[in-house]
């Protein structure tokens, strides 16, 4: 009996590359006996003609399954939608821009199949991305190490393989703010990286990783799976309260010892602005948590499926 591999591909603006990705998947899996495939392409309300391209591919090949969203819900929601229908023993994540070296699939799948790990992700020696996107990725990497306790040196990339149970457990997360990296680390710590080379994009489109999306991902990571930001706020509040007490005591004592000393308006204004800024930042952080709780209570969906093909 052949082992089924599910390929989950969130699709955006790469109608010129999705055909190449599909062909490479089929050729790679066909080259090794004992394996079969299904391709789950999630059209995250792409602004171009990706939907029609996927429909044509699905009509020609029943192993290609398509999910069309009613509106853009983000990459992480699209990936979870693919997980929800994946039937394979192993699930592969990859993007639709040809940057993922599909021909290296077995380097990722073999350690998972041999029970050396539960999740394997690519480790690119050199990232083929803009300086802005690289900066955003590094900020999220730093954040996840602190808040999610991610092991040093571990970096989740756009090409990975996982066991079925990891996928099934991730799908149980129903809140409207999914964060795949946090979900995986919550499920298992048995994660490895496999060195390989990332390719250039297969078209002339930009990545679509805007500043807004970068900030949204950062906030998701900060608030979705950790209360450490609130604890940091508490610690900062205590530190500044102590500083304020010490400063106040120093000012009173200094005035008693030297009655002619004039109180410094500039220094007081600087302290006031600093502490007020910290208070507003902490209130904003608390407000973000409360807002997300409110949205979750109102059962806001992770994604809305408009229609499907071959499902």
How far apart are the termini? 22 Å
What would CATH call the homologous superfamily of the largest domain?
Answer: Spore Coat Polysaccharide Biosynthesis Protein SpsA, Chain A
Number of strand elements: 8
Describe the strand arrangement of the main beta sheet, using strand numbers: 7-5-6-4-1-2-3-8
User: Considering DSSP H and I runs of 4 or more, what fraction of the residues is helical?
Assistant: 40-55%
The largest β sheet comes out as: 8 strands, mixed
Measured on Cα atoms, how large is the radius of gyration? 24 Å
For the record, the CATH class of the largest domain is: Alpha Beta
Count of helical regions: 10
CATH topology of the largest domain: Spore Coat Polysaccharide Biosynthesis Protein SpsA, Chain A
Shape: elongated
The helix-strand sequence is EHEHEHEHEHEHHEHHHE
CATH architecture of the largest domain: Alpha-Beta Complex
Hey, roughly how much beta strand do the residues contain?
Answer: 15-25%
Averaged pLDDT:
81
Low-confidence segments: none
Our count of domains comes out at 2
How would you briefly describe this protein structure?
With 311 residues, this protein is an alpha/beta fold. It is built from 10 helices and 8 strands.
Care to describe what's here?
This protein has 311 residues and is α/β, with parallel strands linked by helices. The protein has two domains: 3-210 and 303-309, Spore Coat Polysaccharide Biosynthesis Protein SpsA, Chain A (Alpha-Beta Complex), CATH 3.90.550.10; 228-297. 49% of the residues lie in helices and 16% in strands. It has ten helices and eight strands. Strands 7-5-6-4-1-2-3-8 form an eight-stranded mixed sheet, sandwiched between helices. Strand 2, helix 2 (50-60) and strand 3 form a beta-alpha-beta unit. Helix 3 packs across helix 6 (164-171) and helix 9 (228-257) runs antiparallel to helix 10. The chain starts with a strand and ends with a strand. The mean pLDDT is 81.
